């Protein structure tokens, strides 16, 4: 790596866990066959945490949790880019300062569909 360059890994450092290495190996060797559908569900009751509920603190489910789910799906799909993304969710009741409290994403890819 160039000494003047920087890597921003934040929470994505989890891709270096041994489990991800095993997943990559299994996918590359088609141990489980070809991926047909990806379904990822995650969540917790963080509705009272200010860093989740307040926009000025970076609140919202996509920023705080969805980025990890998107990273995992991208990892499983070998970086395939979606042809279409359909999103739906629920906003907090803060008017112009509302943040996404829940979200559902469906990706359409050339080879399969991914639901998150």
Task: Please supply descriptive tags for the structure shown above.
116 residues, alpha+beta, 4-stranded mixed β-sheet, 4 strands
Fold and architecture overview:
The protein is of the alpha+beta class. Helices cover 27% and strands 20% of the residues. The protein is built from three helices and four strands; from the N terminus they run αβααβββ. The protein has helices spanning 18-28, 50-53, 61-76, and strands spanning 37-39, 84-91, 100-108, 113-115. It has a four-stranded mixed beta sheet with strand order 1-4-3-2, covered by helices on one side.
Short description:
27% of the residues lie in helices and 20% in strands.
List the helices and strands and how they pair.
Blueprint: H1 18-28, E1 37-39, H2 50-53, H3 61-76, E2 84-91, E3 100-108, E4 113-115
Parallel strand pairs: 1-4
Antiparallel strand pairs: 2-3, 3-4
Strand order of the largest sheet: 1-4-3-2
- Count of strand segments: 4
Question: What would you report as the Rg, rounded to the nearest angstrom?
Answer: 17 Å
Number of helices: 3
Cα(first) to Cα(last) distance is 33 Å
SSE arrangement, N to C: HEHHEEE
How much of the polypeptide forms β-strand, as a percent range? 15-25%
Pick out the low-confidence regions.
none
Subunit organisation of the chains = single chain
Give the overall pLDDT as a whole number. Answer: 80
Q: What is the approximate shape?
A: globular
**Class of secondary structure makeup:** alpha+beta
Largest sheet: 4 strands, mixed
**Helix content class:** 25-40%
